Amino acid sequence: MLKVAKFGGSSMADAGQYKKIRDILLSDPSRRVVVVSAAGKRNKNDHKITDLLYLCHAHTQYGVDCTAVFEMITSRYLDIRNELNISLDLESEFAALKQRLDAKAVTQDELASRGEYFSAKLMAAYLGFRFIDAVEWIKFNLDGTVDQETSYEALQNLVLQGQGAVIPGFYGLMPDGHIRTFTRGGSDITGSLAAAALNADVYENWTDVSGILMADPRIVDDPQAIPEVTYDELRELSYSGAQVLHEGTIFPVREKNIPLNIRNTNAPEDKGTMIREKFDTPADPDRFITGITGKKDFTILSMSKRGMGNQVGVLRKVLSVLERHNISVDYVPNGIDNVSVVMPTEAIAPHLYTILGEIQQDVEPDSLDVHDQIAVIAAVGRHMTFRPGVSGRLFAALGEAGINIRMINQGPDELNIIFGVDNRDFKAAIRVLYNSFVK
């Protein structure tokens, strides 16, 4: 059994968090490969180390002295080292980095990667594990994608059977020898790539919440965590607005059919959320909604044309107009002689009247209406499939709360029910659904 465990910035914030990680790893000997982020915030008024590193680089580019900011970074890691009594010379490395920074000899990506680098050096020394630098195995192609075959083989040669290893997340090496970072949150990708490279049995992603929540906690008070979710459901939740995982995190482990477990460093006894391709039996057979999420500020273009159902190419013409303006369509609910297209208001607003004119010219509809200030909400759940009455219960609950439904859309796989409401009803609709179907 091998588990790759990735710990996020909040889990790496201070010496106390390092101790929690050590206890988590000691409680399960199969957790032998550890991926870490840079130190995150210790409190709401604190700074993330990565933000400070980006600030240092910006200072030097404009000729501003960054010594005070750099000292905040160094003191953070030195405090962790000293409190944990770790024997590790960091001063010389920080001094060399500062010298290169002052000489403008370090790129933004390399400087930003040092948060993860120093976190991993400290954690490896604290645990007595081997430190494996990300540049030793994560190899980027020239276009910025990861060369998975080369990277996987390199890590397999570096990780010794039965021994522990700590790897910094967030960065790798370009073909020209320069360090390149992933986008923000990229340490999750590093962890996923490591799990895939080593054919891990489980990839554990440790953060500050006990799994993926069934609804936004800013809208619903103390929402429950989702115990089990499929990769397809997770994709639906993410696309519809849920803040879950970095998109690139999913693909490496899904490709290898490796379960992904979201856990809480501060509550390690919680089982968190398990993500798999499929589950043989449901954790709760009586619950058919996995999660509820949504986004505001959509625009609906509604068009009707008599006999449209018997005409070929009408929808294609509408979509071609939007394509010319580089606008992606989220949903296309339709009837026999009418069709609607739903897209973010931000995308269509600058081109709205031009688009309306082009549709009028190309399609000659009987009516063409615009509805904005629309919120789109998704109720996602694999157990809704072939279950009679789900839509009826959902819409009845909203109707009883006086919430008007402006749009309905559902895919043939019945994995979700999408509906639109006025922006002003967005939070109320999510609360109604959560209280009606979850509590």
Can you give a write-up of this model?
With 439 residues, this protein is of the alpha/beta class. 37% of the residues lie in helices and 20% in strands. The protein has 14 helices and 15 strands. It has helices spanning 15-26, 49-61, 67-83, 91-102, 108-127, 148-158, 187-197, 231-239, 247-255, 314-324, 345-348, 352-363, 390-400, 426-437, and strands at residues 3-7, 31-36, 130-131, 165-168, 171-173, 179-181, 202-207, 228-230, 260-264, 273-276, 291-304, 338-344, 367-380, 407-409, 416-422. An 8-stranded mixed beta sheet has the order 3-4-2-1-7-9-10-8, sandwiched between helices. Strands 12-11-13-15-14 form a 5-stranded antiparallel beta sheet. Strand 3 (130-131), helix 6 and strand 4 (165-168) form a beta-alpha-beta unit. Helix 2 packs antiparallel against helix 3 (67-83), helix 2 runs antiparallel to helix 5 and helix 7 (187-197) runs parallel beside helix 9. It starts with a strand and ends with a helix. The mean pLDDT is 91.
